[in-house]
Specification:
Layout: E1 4-8, E2 11-14, H1 15-37, H2 42-67, H3 69-74, H4 76-80, H5 87-105, H6 109-134, E3 148-149, E4 161-162, H7 165-184, H8 192-211, E5 218-219, E6 222-223, H9 224-245
Antiparallel strand pairs: 1-2, 3-4, 5-6
Helix pairs in contact: 1-2, 1-6, 2-5, 6-7, 6-8, 7-8, 8-9
């Protein structure tokens, strides 16, 4: 574990940044492959992924500033320039970006968001591995065999055994991807994969938050992410209900 993986001259490869980049490349590679398989417009999917990345990052940064509002008021540039990021801000702004893009391009929203929802866990899983390498998003102190001791230089407290909640999240995201991959290739109704993603991610995130111990904001007795998870879970269940009521037979005759 280290923030810096290796250096070539003055060029240093940071573990966090590398995993974020690999996550995006993996997600977009899979997404375009899946779009082609479903006979969707690959270029539209690729362009949409770029916009989601940009505005998703912006949304995640904005929500981070809101969560850290006291520090932001004291030193705006320090907060904006930090690596701080709230995933839910990225998800919410990403969804809004997809809605607007599909409306402008006059393409089917549910078809494209299903593909993106299926690819997103890959990005998130590798991103969490990056969090592990940087030591952010760390868990509580523990005496269990699962504990990890982070070295000096990481964002996590050094020299004590901590639960690797980053890896718990990564494992959950990979599992969610497998489930979504199976669903989307079994020709489910449009919106099903999006609903399952919202439900699965919100439940997993709520549980992992219980074991985290980094500063990340709170709403009452819940962390900010747990609070948002409740709304995402309700939204996912509602979307799933709508897909069951839909007259669409399956994904095959609606992705075109």
């Amino acid at each position: 574990m280290a923030i810096d993986l290796f250096s070539i001259g003055k060029f240093t490869v940071h573990g966090y940044g590398l995993m974020i980049a690999l996550g995006f490349l993996a997600a977009i590679t899979y997404g375009t492959w899946q779009a082609k398989k479903l006979k969707l417009n690959e270029d539209a999917l690729y362009n949409l992924a770029i916009f989601v990345l940009l505005f998703g990052w912006l949304g995640g940064k904005i929500l981070f500033c809101i969560v850290e509002i006291k520090d932001f008021i004291k030193s705006p540039l320090a907060v904006l320039g930090s690596e701080g990021f709230v995933v839910y801000g990225g998800i919410l702004s990403g969804i809004l970006t997809i809605v607007i893009y599909c409306k402008i391009k006059k393409i089917d929203f549910l078809s494209y968001i299903d593909v993106i929802a299926t690819a997103t866990p890959i990005n998130q899983a590798l991103g969490r591995v990056g969090c592990f390498l940087a030591g952010c998003c760390y868990g509580r102190e523990t005496t269990s065999h699962f504990g990890v001791v982070f070295p000096e230089g990481c964002m996590a407290p050094a020299g004590v055994k901590l639960l690797p909640t980053q890896l718990f999240s990564a494992a959950g995201d990979f599992l969610l991807f497998i489930v979504l991959f199976i669903l989307i290739n079994k020709k489910q109704k449009r919106g099903t994969c999006t609903a399952v993603y919202l439900i699965g991610y919100s439940i997993g995130r709520f549980i992992v938050e219980i074991f985290r111990n980094d500063a990340r904001g709170a709403v009452g007795s819940l962390s900010t992410s747990q609070f948002i998870s409740l709304f995402m879970l309700v939204g996912g269940i509602f979307v799933f209900y709508l897909t069951r009521k839909s007259k669409d037979k399956n994904i095959e005759n609606t992705y075109n």
